Each structure stands twice: as C-alpha cells, then as structure tokens.
Amino acid sequence: DVITCNAAISACEKGVQWQRSLDLLLDMQERRVAMDIVVCSAAISACEKGGRWKEALSVFSQMQRRRLRPSVVPFNAAISACQKGVQWQDSLDLFYALEQHRLKPDTISFNAAISACGDAKRWQESLDMFRDMHQRRTAADVNTCTVVMSACVDGGPWQQALRVLPEMHQMRIAPSAFTYNAGLSACESSDRWQDACAFWEMVRNSRVEQDATNYNAAIVACRTGKQWQRSLELLSEMEREALDPGIIGYSAAISVCDHSGQWQRALAMLAHMRLRNKDPSEISYNSALTACDRCDKWQATLSILAEMRQRQLE
User: Is the pLDDT of residue 263 over 90?
Assistant: First the structure.
C-alpha cells in the first residue's frame, strides 16, 4: 500500500538509492497505488542526493501532471538537484514557480537558487536574490552570505564581496572559515595585497578557527606585493599550528618567491617540501624554474630540470 511504499522510498532517499526509488515509483504506477506528495518528495530528494537532476525534474513533472498539491519540500529538492547539475536557469524557474503555487520560499529555497547562480558564475543574479531575500524578510544564514561572496569573487565586483561582511554583522550572522576565505580570495583576485594583509589580521583576531585554505589564500595574496617574507612567515605559522599547507600552500609560497626575485628561497622551499615528505608538483618546479631563469641562474635551472626528468615531470 501507499504507506509501505512511502517507507521504502524514504529509505532509498536516506541511502541515496536514486535508481531504486525510481523503480519503486514505477512499480507503484503499475500496481495503481496512488502516489502522494510525500512519495514524490522522497524520490526527488533521492535523485538530488545522487546528483541526478534530470531524473529529479522528471519526478517533479509527474507530480505536477497528477495535480498533487505541492509543498515547499519537493520544490527545494528539485532546485537543489538543478543546482548540483549546474542548471541555474532551471533552478530559478522552479524558485519563481513557488509563488505560482502560493508557496513561500524559505532559507533552503533561497540558498539552493543562489548557489545555482553562484556555481554558474551568475553573480548579478546571486546578488539580486540576496537582496530579494532581505526584502522578503527571509532569514539568511552563513551559507547564504558565503555563496554570495564567492559568486562575486568568481565573476563579479570584488568590492561587493567584502560589503557582504558588514551586512552579516547587521544580521548577527557569524562568519565561518569559508566566509573569510571568500573575502581573502576577493582581495587576492583584485591584486590588492595590502587589503588582503589587513583582512588577514581581522581574520586572525576573529574567534573562528582558521584552516589551511585560509592560510593558503593569504599566501597567494602576498604574490602581487612581492611579500615573500610574509608568505614564509604564514607558512611557518601553519606548521606551528599543525596545519598541513599541502602542495597548494608550498607551491604558492614558491610562486611568491619567484615573483619577488628570491630564487634561493624558492630552491630552499623545494628542499623544505622534500623534508616534509611532500613531493613537489609540476607547478612547484615550474615556479622555481622561473625564479632561477629571472636571475640567470642557469646551473640551478639545469639542476631542477634534471630532478624533474628523474621524477618524469618534464
């Protein structure tokens, strides 16, 4: 019966068994068991969690054809499915269809639609929805603000990304490490290393525990200002805090040394990576090569090339 089917499809949703949930829906149709909104919502959610946006929309269409009275839940699941499939226009179409059904979008609805626009680098649409959210007095959360900031960093005005932070303060939303990382990336993408350094000090004075991603973003920001000393200080601080810079962090520091004309520091960083049991990547080697080439250190260049050949990276 419908109760048994509801339980089975809900179990598929929790287990991300999207294909099984669709099979159960088909079985219900063949047995002429009436589908309700709960069954459809669970199936759409299973497809969303499984990254199957087309299947999610197919179930959503079935729900509409059967004229089932929808709630905001299946809409949110379908919007999220389209967001994961980078189908920003479909996400917006579903979002605005909520009003046609006299349903009020909630924080989840807005976050999914804003994320869809952000993932597609539609920063203006992300900002518009963020403002619309405020006008509707729908509560934003830290995820909302972080996604809007990231959208501005990826394709929009970097200043707008930083303007979100004071708005968060007004809304009494505490920034997360991801929020601060978006802010650091905004400064770095605009080549404003002074702002990045000032922003980093603000981040350090916050109560948010910083991660390697934030440190690495700050290191990258040092490149434009040729702040090689600062980049190495940040790297040392990470190691003292037992944070792993990873290949990204070490390569970023080597790149800063390269742009600063510090070829010896770049080579020392390569050696340091090996001491830390980190195999330099092609990017790491190329930055060191460029540093040596800038300073006409051909012997060091040949030494790096020999090491690259030995590791088959050339």
Answer: yes
